[in-house]
Amino acid sequence: MEERMLRMERFISLGSLASGLHHEIKNPLTALSIHVQLLEERLRDPNPSEPVDELIGVLNTEVHRLNGVLESFRNFTNLQRLTIQDVSITDVLETTIRLVRPQASEQQVEISIHYPEKPLPKVPLDVEKFEQAVLNVIINALEAMPSGGMLLIRVILAGDTLQVEVSDTGLGIPHELQSSVFKPYFSTKSRGSGMGLALTEKIISQHGGNVTFQTGPKGTTFRLLLPLKQSV
Amino acid sequence: MTDSVFRILIVDDESNIRMGLSKALASEMYEISTAEDAASAWVVFCRECSQLVITDLKMPGSLSGLDLVQQIKHERPETLVLVITLTERLKPPWKQCAWALMTTLRSPLIWKCCVIKCGRRSNIIN
Question: Contact, B50 vs B78, CB < 8 A?
């Protein structure tokens, strides 16, 4: 019975992944199709009234976008083993934050980072994948504060667990969307890949941890919980 | 607003699809408006009394594409609705209230014919 339930669950998530991928490919493909036809029409016109550059620009944009869709799909489905090494969480977080500082400053978002007073132990992580996981949460936090705010990153040691909290002062996640935030291809942005939080959850689970969140009208906090002893 | 012009509303959250369709259908016979989501499309529809609505199925926001079509059909049942799709067949409940506008058709000419047919059906285009 349990095996049957697990199989059904796998089919359901495969179905929702396929449906999400279909939607993500459909949009750029539709735009490509329309513009290829417009280009064809304009090239056949002996006296075209407008240049073709703009149409070619759209074709390029949409081809890059399709490439991005496939890249994020590959990242999500890539089941490669983690390359675990004991690292300083401070170094990993500082590297990640450095990447988003220009964007944060452009949006007038202040970044504040808090570490526990006692020295942090080294944490077993796949650095590249963990950075990606944290980056996705931070990007979401920044997108929740388009007109400025505060991005607070807190590292907490709790027994055998390390907790990385990322909080924003945005408007929070609407109640009806909260159950979908970790689903692949779920996005409220028309240009978002919808894979960010799904990928974060997958990476953290691969590390033996989990991701939770709390949200309200004053902002959202995502918590990435990691075991200090790696058991994957 | 004269009745000799066929008023078309194009609704899609993808700007390249919205603007591409606008360009493909541009003609003196049509007055084309666009909207990037169902809620703003409803405002445009009420203001301009669009005779043909070409809309996407899935769009972000509190109002879905289907909600929009159902509101339009309830408000003015004679409004023609084309749904932007990659396949020919629409599934219920779309099947009951709209036709499919396949964007993979070979030429914008075919879309134009499709739109002209809609215009004829509403006695706007001879």
Answer: no
**A163 Cβ under 8 Å from any chain B Cβ:** no
Q: Which among A31, A37, A190 has the least Cβ separation from residue B107? A: A37
pLDDT tens-place values along chain B, 126 residues long? 445 688 999 999 889 989 988 888 887 788 999 999 999 999 999 999 999 898 887 787 888 888 898 899 889 988 888 887 655 556 665 555 566 565 544 455 556 666 666 666 655 444
Amino acid present at A31: A
Q: According to the model, what pLDDT value does residue A9 have?
A: 58
Q: What secondary structure, in 3-state letters, does chain B show? A: CCCCCEEEEEECCCHHHHHHHHHHHCCCCEEEEEECCHHHHHHHHHHHCCCEEEECCCCCCCCCHHHHHHHHHHHCCCCEEEEEECCCCCCCCHHHHCEEEECCCCCHHHHHHHHHHHHHHCCCCC
Average pLDDT estimate for A165-185: 85
SS3 A158: strand
| β-pair type (B80-85, B52-55) | parallel
Alpha-carbon span B10 to B56, nearest angstrom = 9
Tell me: the pLDDT tens digits for A21-51? Answer: 877 788 888 888 888 888 988 888 888 778 8
In tens, the pLDDT along A79-110 reads: 567 888 999 999 999 999 998 998 899 999 99
Nearest-CA distance A29 → chain B (Å): 9
CB of B17 within 8 Å of any CB in chain A?
A: yes
The ipTM estimated for the assembled molecules is 0.70
Q: Is A23 on the interface with B (CB under 8 A)?
A: yes
Minimum CA–CA partner of A59 in chain B: B16
What are the chain A neighbours of B17 within 8 Å (beta carbons)?
27, 30-31, 34
C-alpha distances in Å from residue A191, one per residue of A65, B13, B36, B115: 9, 9, 13, 29
Q: Which amino acid is at B27?
A: S
d(CA A227, CA B94): 49
